[in-house]
From TrEMBL:
It comes from Flavobacterium helocola. Residues 4-62 form the Zinc beta-ribbon finger putative domain. This is DUF6371 domain-containing protein. Transmembrane segments: none annotated. Residues 92-247 form the DUF6371 domain.
């Protein structure tokens, strides 16, 4: 059987998207010749804000035999890299942000649980290691955060700072090649917990924070919207899965979950966030942070009165003129403190 063969370009080269006019389009290429198709066929990286994706459907005139090209074997990092990155947390912006919300003990437990690392790629950057249930290290994703807000640090072009450990090793000639094969962030935790329900989110930051807020679940992250797929979820097929997509991603995750459930998965997609007024891209960690800040803002601080103030309060019930005397002569207690009315 003959048919047209094509694939999305796997290089970092981008073209102008015909829909949003941003240089974010990944073109399709002919597998046989390596030639790009025209701008009508490709996928925009701005999936949420643009969503352009047009796939060629075989209306070309130069078909050829389909060649079954085996996938290259996946590469893995040495676990020593994970151990070596487990330091300098005082300089780690993400860890310092966590300490503004959680206790020292909770943060330390999260570090050990998810094996969070620190990178020299940028000052204060964080490494999120992707380690599977067989303790194989698939990847090290490097992100930069703002320590005061926990938001992604962005460059002058408005893009988040992101890099990969294998990319750095290739640039420094430490390794020659690396076949990236990602897995769920936190996947190694399924071997260390008796929990039977897995909570699945998109961002690594969200998984870590939610594991402290709601420790009754195993919190894993897909790392991206596209990470919610069969290949990544296969190791957790036997678990009950509750998926918590970011705001505006519910429809896509629900569609994919429906397909996966036909294959034997047990996935429920939570739609609570989708039905709120939060802006697109908001995740559950953002919501809990907002609620936490509101609770602290509205919290009434208890006023502790001195023994003198309590005695005068009782005395006032039958002699209210006592306050005229205190105000007229500016009386204070034995420690020279102002005497307040008990409210």
């Amino acid at each position: 059987m003959k048919q047209y063969k094509y694939n999305l370009d796997k290089s970092s080269k981008k073209f102008v998207c015909p829909k949003c006019n941003k240089r974010t389009l990944v073109k399709y290429k002919e597998t046989e010749t390596g030639n790009y198709l025209n701008e009508d066929f490709g996928r925009c990286d701005r999936e949420t804000n643009c969503g352009f994706h047009n796939t060629p459907t075989g209306e070309f005139n130069n078909p050829f035999e389909v060649v079954n090209i085996p996938k290259p074997k996946p590469s893995f990092h040495n676990f020593d890299l994970v151990s070596q990155s487990g330091r300098n947390y005082k300089e780690n912006n993400f860890i310092q942000f966590l300490k503004t919300i959680f206790t020292e003990t909770e943060v330390k437990e999260a570090i050990l649980k998810y094996l969070i690392g620190t990178s020299k790629r940028w000052n204060g950057a964080t490494i999120f290691w992707q380690i599977d249930n067989l303790q194989k290290v698939h990847a090290g994703k490097i992100l930069q955060y703002v320590s005061k807000t926990g938001k992604r640090h962005k460059n002058e072009d408005g893009k988040s700072l992101i890099d990969w450990v294998h990319s750095i090793l290739k640039r420094t000639k430490t390794i020659n090649d690396f076949n990236l094969n990602q897995c769920l962030f936190g996947l190694h935790l399924i071997n260390e917990s008796n929990a039977k329900t897995i909570a699945l989110v998109e961002g690594e930051k969200t998984a870590i924070m939610m594991s402290i807020f709601k420790p009754q679940y195993i919190w894993l992250a897909t790392g991206s919207k596209q990470g919610f797929k069969y290949e990544n979820l296969k190791p957790i097929k036997q678990y009950k899965i509750i998926a918590f997509p970011d705001k505006s991603e519910y429809a896509d995750w629900f569609k994919k979950a429906t397909e996966l459930n036909i294959l034997g998965f047990d996935i429920i997609v939570n739609d609570w966030l989708e039905n709120t007024n939060f802006e697109a891209g908001t995740d559950f960690a953002d919501v809990l942070l907002i609620e936490k800040k509101e609770a602290e803002k509205n919290k009434k601080h208890e006023i502790i009165y001195t023994d003198t103030e309590n005695i005068i309060n009782e005395f006032e019930t039958h002699t209210p003129e006592i306050w005229n005397l205190i105000e007229t002569f500016g009386l204070v207690d034995c420690n020279w403190n102002e005497i307040r009315k008990v409210i």
